[in-house]
Amino acid sequence: MPRELTPLEQLQLMIPGYRGYKVKDLVWQDDMLVRRYMIDRLENANSNFSKMMSEIARRSPFDERLRALDDLTSRIRELVSDINSAQSGGVDVYARWKIHAEQLEQIYEYDLKLVGLASQVEKASIERNLDAANQALMELRRLWQDRAKLFYPPELAK
To answer: What's the pLDDT band for 12 if we cut at 50, 70, 90?
Structure first.
């Protein structure tokens, strides 16, 4: 009976070049790979929803779905901006506070969930499913904020 893959192994299969946070310098590189993967998925979703919005606006400029789509694309852009501008991979933090193996395992688990949710948002955009996209996006934002706290000591992570 084959064993179940660890979160790190799953991430290595999903994201080309992902090695895991094994060495101090690789923390930043792996964090950037996760961010780029998420941003690519979210930008694809945003593009799909924007095209959908254009199609609807051409046919029916006062369609109530336009407001929902505008709100969704705005929240996607906001999250992409947050991901782009957040401190990269604990670079400054790692130099000050040691990240322990248990924290790395938690980071891997968060990363796996985050890339999965970003893919769900993209899939929902392809399927034109606003409800699924909204739900995945809300969970993605929450997990992204929670993950950032893992790079700090507990007393500073509040």
So the answer is: confident
**Overall pTM surpassing 0.85 (yes/no):** no
**Residue appearing with tokens 């130099």:** 95
pLDDT at 91: 53
The 8-class DSSP code of residue 46 comes to H
Buried b / exposed e along 91-121 (16+ C-beta atoms within 10 A): eebbeeeebeeebbebbbbbbbbbbbbbbbb
* Burial (CB count <10 Å: 0-12, 13-18, 19+), residue 42: buried
For residue 48, give the amino acid letter: N
Using the structure block, give the residue that is written with the tokens 């994201």. 15
